[in-house]
Structures are given as C-alpha cells and as structure tokens.
Amino acid sequence: MKKFLLHPETFKLDGGAMFGIIPKPLWSKKIIPDELNRILMSLRVVLLQTKNKNILIDTGIGQYHSEKFKQQFDISSNGSLLTLLEKQNLKASDITDIILTHLHFDHVGGLTEDNKPLFPNAMIHVHQKHYEYALSPTQRDSGSFQTHFFKPALDAYQEKNQIHFLQDEDGVILKDESEEITYKTSFGHTPFMIHPIFDQHMYMADLVPMSHHVHVPWVMGYDIEPGVTTVYKEKFYQYILDQNLTMIFEHDNQVWGGSLKLNEKNKFVLDKINDFDGSNILEIK
C-alpha cells in the first residue's frame, strides 16, 4: 500500500474554540493566533493506493465557497484536490473509494462542485447513523453541517448504489486482496465519527485534530460532548499503544503525525513526532 498526505488548503478557526476550556495563556504557547484570535490549520487528505484501488480519506473544504466565507475562515488554496491528484497522474474518475470520517464542511467540501459529485466512480463510505444525525443535528452544531452542499451529492451517489453505509462501531471498511482498511468510531465531537486504520496508521480526524490536542483534557469547544471526547481519547490511545500505530493529524499545519507513549506520570504524550515540511504531496512510510 502506498500512502500519501495531500495538502490542498489551509484555513483558520478561533483558537479559543479549538481549545475549549484551556486558557489562552496555555494554548497560545503551542500555537500563535492572528489578530482575530484565529489559528492556522491544515486540511489534510489521505490518498491510499493499493493494487486495484485509489482511496481518499476525507476531501478537505472544497473550492465552491463564497468570498465572504473564504474571508471568514481565511481559506488559502495550495491547489485544488483535483490538481494534487493530477500531480499523482490521477483523474477524478480514477478514485475508486472515498472514506468520509464525518460530514462537517471542512471534511466533505471537496466531494462536490455545483452540488454534483466530483468523483463519478467512487464508492462513498460513511457511517449510516452519523449520516442520519447530520441531516438533523442540534442547533449547537448545525452550522458545521452544510447539508445543502453535501446531501445532493450523496443522493446522487446513492441513486447509483455508490454508498456503503457502515453500521457498527468498528469493523472493516474495504479490502483489496490482502490489504484492508478497518475502522473504529468515536463519540464526543460528533456521533459515530469514523477513524480509518491502515498499514499501522490511524487517521484521528477531529478526535485529536492537532498534535496540540494529544493531552487528554485538551478538547475542542466545538465538541458536542467534551467529556465523552476525553473518554474516547483514552480508549483510542490504549489501542494505539497496543497496536503500535502512528496517528495522522488532519488539521495540524506543523506536525502531520506521531506515536504515543506513557510518561513517568502515566500520562499519554507524543513520542516520535513527524514534522510537516509544507509539501502539498508527501509520501509516508
């Protein structure tokens, strides 16, 4: 299996919201906010290539947003997702599978253009209970779901029998001969968020969006149940240690991943750290 990290865009979110109850004097030592208190974040997409499949994990924020939206989130493009795929000698039609960890706008935006699917031959893998939640979220998190953009595209995929709805809290997403991608689900940030596991890596999505969030109490204010997030972080960390997995951080613009260890205080901390060199396409081992 070949593994690539694609870096189509960056954006900014409020630093206070990204760190919840953690005071600014603490989190600002880790990452410096701009004059509007926003912090710079990656929109990291994974491309996996097996013998017969070209697989994407999440799709970034997309290229269709209004100027007002782009300014609000300070979206900066490093080349569209399609452009980066072209550099890998891939067309949109070559993508066989797209795994969506969840349906927040910064994870599913690159799936569509003009409310139409960008990847005509892809099988979409998403958790059914999360999809159902995304169609009727709470008022607190409804702004994170741009249903008017993603639902027409997912409807089109469904009409062609190109949606695989995951049903369980863990299992297999897909197989290609001897290679497979499995998953675990987490709760707290949003219900039934999936975390693909492949070739000794786990995609952390918004359970641990950046390396700065590895410490268990450092949880986003965007999470609908922050206490539940901490429970799942500990569960996942023990699994990651037991399986010797490398975490991939979707939103960290300085560190793309790392492994865990227990320190002398029996707390989970980063061990090996994989710095991000700014490459729009980075092959990882």
What does this structure look like?
- The longest helix has 18 residues, at 226-243.
- With 285 residues, this protein is α+β, with helices and mostly antiparallel strands.
- The chain has a single domain (2-284), classed as Metallo-beta-lactamase, Chain A (4-Layer Sandwich), CATH 3.60.15.10.
- The protein has eight helices and 19 strands.
- The mean pLDDT is 96.
- It is globular, with a radius of gyration of 18 Å.
- It has helices at 15-19, 24-27, 67-72, 81-87, 105-108, 128-134, 147-159, 226-243, and strands at 2-6, 9-14, 38-42, 45-49, 54-57, 76-77, 97-99, 112-113, 116-117, 123-127, 163-166, 170-176, 179-186, 193-198, 201-203, 246-248, 255-262, 268-275, 281-284.
- A seven-stranded mixed β-sheet has the order 11-10-7-5-4-1-19.
- Strand 13 (179-186) and strand 14 (193-198) form a beta hairpin.
Number of separate helices: 8
Q: Any idea how many domains?
A: 1
Assembly classification:
single chain
Q: Which homologous superfamily in CATH is the superfamily?
A: Ribonuclease Z/Hydroxyacylglutathione hydrolase-like
Structural class: alpha+beta
Low-confidence parts, pLDDT < 50 over ≥5 residues? Answer: none
Q: What percent of residues are in strands?
A: 25-35%
CATH-defined architecture: 4-Layer Sandwich
Instruction: Spell the H/E element sequence.
Output: EEHHEEEHEHEHEEEHHEEEEEHEEEE
CATH class: Alpha Beta
| Helical percentage | 10-25%
Shape by Cα distribution: globular
The averaged pLDDT comes out at 96
Lateral arrangement of strands in the main beta sheet: 11-10-7-5-4-1-19
